[in-house]
Design brief:
Layout lengths: L3 H9 L6 E3 L12 E3 L2 H13 L3 H14 L9 H10 L3 H14 L4 H13 L3 H14 L4 H13 L3 H14 L4 H13 L3 H14 L3 H9 L8 H17 L4 H13 L3 H14 L3 H13 L3 H14 L4 H16 L1
Antiparallel strand pairs: 1-2
């Protein structure tokens, strides 16, 4: 099990040992010596934040680490930093990190993995896969690099190779929940739902991160889901939101399940709350669908237009929804 809250509380405790810098005054008086978190402290705090799914705080902590300790470019934990930046879509910071590591340690395994994440964010999966292969050749014990390679291969729909990469990661580290989740995603895409659920449950037993809870719930919240499966999905989303109130994807999908269960008022309340603070086009699409179910076509059209403004790339899909609504009203 990962105990992120306990780690954060321990590291942030005022009595926890910290680094000192500056000049000590005469006669042993150290009043002029400043104290700040050590590299060890910041690294483990950043990793705890990563594993609980708080990518922004994780990235901020790693940035602080490198500000205080610019020499810290050798550490494998920086691969997690690059993944946090990947999730945040921070192309500039990730590119700068990769360039900095290439200049200092061009052949180190962490450098190669960070560069791979940069390629991945730029939608260059083939280059990312090559870099991750090199990283594992340089350091065969860098389990996270195998898992990242598995996800890149899965993105390319190379399912057999992806499965091998995830299993290699688990061979090195049997507690790497990210690799179990990768196998879950692999089987889910292959419509082997029961196998997918087994792997997701294994990942959750190690670390119940928001992203993995969401993917596990998705195995129940399917297009052809039964009433029993939808209720199971709702239970998982309730747990995910309870543990992580800022898990916005879980709140959105929970509202979708409520909508499918016919609990329209509950769905509408959740969606309206999300719409106030989340500029996500799909939240407004779901809210429009909710208005359709409530027989409020004019409200539905308003929300579809809002979704179109937020994400013009979904124009074909959203206009299709509006045309379907208009056709239904004509009938």
């Amino acid at each position: 099990m990962y105990y992120m809250n306990e780690v954060k509380l321990l590291i942030k405790n005022p009595s926890f040992p910290m680094s000192t810098y500056g000049k000590k005054a005469a006669h042993g008086n150290d009043a002029t010596v400043a104290r700040r978190p050590s590299a060890w402290q910041l690294t483990h705090l950043a990793l705890a934040l990563f594993h609980e799914g708080n990518m922004q705080a994780c990235a901020d902590t790693f940035a602080q680490l490198l500000t205080y300790n610019p020499w810290f470019l050798h550490d494998p934990s920086l691969v997690y930093y690059s993944t946090a930046l990947w999730h945040l879509k921070d192309v500039t910071t990730l590119g700068a990190l990769a360039q900095r590591m290439l200049e200092e340690l061009p052949f180190a395994a962490p450098t190669l993995a960070v560069v791979a994440n940069k390629y991945s964010l730029s939608k260059e999966p083939n280059e990312a896969i090559v870099m991750l292969e090199r990283a594992t050749q340089v350091d065969p014990l860098l389990s996270y690099a195998y898992a990242l390679r598995g996800y890149e291969l899965l993105y390319m729909d190379h399912k057999t190779e992806a499965g091998e990469a995830f299993r290699q990661a688990l061979h090195v580290d049997r507690n790497l929940y990210i690799a179990y989740a990768g196998l879950g995603e692999l089987h889910f895409r292959g419509e082997e739902v029961e196998f997918a659920r087994q792997y997701f449950r294994k990942a959750i037993s190690i670390n119940s991160s928001p992203a993995i809870l969401n993917r596990y719930a998705a195995t129940f919240n399917r297009r052809d889901a039964s009433m029993e499966e939808l209720l199971q999905a709702l239970s998982i989303y309730d747990s995910a939101v309870g543990d992580h109130p800022l898990n916005l994807p879980a709140r959105h999908q929970r509202a979708d399940v409520l909508l499918r269960l016919g609990r329209l008022q509950e769905a509408q309340e959740e969606l309206l709350q999300l719409a106030q603070g989340t500029p996500d086009a799909m939240v407004f699409v779901t809210l429009a669908r909710c208005q359709e179910c409530l027989n409020r076509p004019h409200e539905a059209i308003k929300y579809y237009h809002r979704a179109l403004v937020l994400d013009p790339r979904r124009e074909v899909y959203i206009k299709g929804c509006m045309e379907r609504l208009a056709a239904g009203n004509e009938d």
